[in-house]
Design brief:
InterPro entries: CCDC47 (IPR012879). By secondary structure, the protein is an alpha+beta fold. The chain is built from 17 helices and ten strands. It has a domain of 239 residues. Strand 2 and strand 3 form a beta hairpin.
Length: 476
């Protein structure tokens, strides 16, 4: 701080000396050698003013004025400033402007930046930009696996869909002539104008065909249930549990055409399954032991029979030969006059037996190689059984046994629903008395109302009275 003031004082003294000093001062021998020696003993501006006033002499003429500063004088002054290490040090301009005492209220940019940094420190968020995928394909293995799975699924979908359609059309073209010979209408779709007679596609793995116009039946429904080849998951499940393409033939027989009996023949696995699922088989049939000895059926097939007489009539020589020859394609044959569908859950509110109808059902496996000519005789077997049911009649003993079985089933049903029927009957009687009371009370006849109330009281008293049993005693 003292150095800066010294520099300023020297500059100011230099200017004032050239303009204001008298010749007497300059002529003094004591100041000839050093022009600025007079300022060496002055430490403040006040001392300098006093000395200047004491040395003021007479007024100088214009000719005697102090000459202007020359280049030589400036150089000499500049050398004095540089060599005077004891009096002051010239500082940098930036440091000069940072002096708080000289420049009050002046805020340097560096100081403001420091204060701003101390008050609010900005939070920088650097975005993580991933590298280009072409440089590291291994980072997208999950996406590539999903795309590969989708591609395999769609390829399998279209391939499986086309194969199922091809198998269904092949079966229909193979059996078309036989169906036309036995039915008037083949491929009815339920419309008035049947534009396209043929298979109806229900799904990618299910095709149906409806045929009608034949004696002893109301119609025949053919269902082609293919393996779900369009579904990868179903194909993978089929590796653990093998599946086959199947054809299911359902014929609704005309009432009164066949006698009253229930019959079923099929593979052991199918027999075990349907015996629990269908009510007509569980109520009327029993499983025949050793059917291969009793009815000559091939090994691997089981028989459910209600009337042995009827079972022997159905499993005649021609049918046994067909079952033996085409055993690998046969799943089941179901004949019943009491078919009512799957077993229904017990419901206390059910007061009526389910409706029944006579049916002829059959299920066959289709060849894996797609040769539909191999299963054509099985459709011929169905038509033969239809004609056989129309002409066959049981003996008197067989009909009586079938009648007793139906009465037994009806009694079991009535027993199981006795409580529900009694409750329903009581509710109907109560509703009837309520209506009668409303009718009597609506009339303007007090005598009639009184008689009705007396009648009701007697009924209530009789209902509450203990019941007594009357015994008849013979007189001696």
């Amino acid at each position: 701080m003292m150095h800066e003031k010294s520099v300023k004082l020297i500059v100011l003294c230099l200017m004032l000396t050239q303009w204001c000093l008298s010749p007497a001062v300059t002529a003094d021998s004591s100041f000839e050698d050093n022009d600025f020696a007079e300022f060496e003993d002055f430490d403040s501006d006040d001392d300098f003013v006093e000395i200047q006033q004491s040395n003021v002499g007479p007024q100088l003429s214009p000719a005697e004025e102090i000459p202007t500063l020359t280049e030589k004088g400036l150089k000499r002054d500049h050398s004095i400033l540089e060599d005077d290490d004891d009096d002051g040090i010239v500082e940098d301009e930036d440091e000069f402007f940072k002096d708080e005492e000289e420049f009050e209220g002046f805020d340097s940019p560096d100081k403001e930046d420091d204060d701003l940094d101390q008050k609010t420190e900005p939070k920088l968020t650097v975005a993580k930009i991933p590298m280009h995928f072409r440089t590291h394909w291994d980072s997208y293995w999950m996406e590539m696996l999903m795309l590969a799975g989708l591609m395999v699924y769609f390829i399998n979908f279209f391939a499986g869909k086309a194969k199922n359609a091809n198998l269904a059309n092949r079966w229909f073209n193979t059996h078309r002539a036989l169906l036309d010979d036995n039915f008037v209408l083949v491929g009815d779709d339920g419309k008035m104008d049947n534009e396209k007679n043929g298979l109806i596609k229900e799904s990618e793995s299910l095709y149906t065909l409806w045929c009608s116009g034949r004696t002893c039946c109301e119609g025949m429904l053919v269902e082609l249930k293919m393996i779900k080849r369009q579904d990868v998951v179903s194909l993978m499940a089929g590796l653990m549990r093998p599946q086959q393409d199947q054809i299911h033939i359902k014929i609704d027989l005309t009432r009164g055409v066949m006698d009253t009996f229930v019959f079923f023949v099929g593979t052991k696995r199918t027999v075990t399954k349907v015996f629990k699922e269908y009510s007509d088989l569980s109520k009327y049939c029993t499983q025949v032991s050793k059917p291969e000895i009793r009815y000559n059926v091939p090994n691997g097939l089981s028989v459910l029979s209600e009337i042995p007489e009827a079972t022997s009539a159905i499993l005649e020589n021609r049918v046994i030969i067909t079952l033996t020859k085409y055993q690998q394609y046969i799943d089941y044959l179901h004949i019943s006059d009491q078919f009512s569908g799957p077993v229904q859950q017990e419901d206390a509110n059910t007061l009526k037996q389910p409706d029944t109808k006579p049916i002829l059902w059959a299920g066959f496996n289709l060849p894996r190689e797609g040769n539909m000519e191999a299963v054509k005789p099985l459709l011929v077997l169905i038509f033969y059984l239809m004609e056989r049911l129309k002409t066959y009649r049981m003996s008197k003993e067989g009909k009586q046994k079938a009648e007793r079985n139906r009465l037994r089933v009806e009694e079991e049903f009535l027993k199981s629903t006795h409580a529900a029927r009694a409750e329903a009957a009581a509710q109907r009687r109560e509703e009837k008395r309520k209506q009668e009371k409303e009718r009597v009370m609506a009339e303007d006849d007090p005598e009639k109302q009184r008689r009705w109330e007396m009648k009701e009281q007697k009924r209530q008293a009789k209902k509450k009275a203990p019941k007594m049993k009357r015994l008849a005693v013979k007189s001696l």
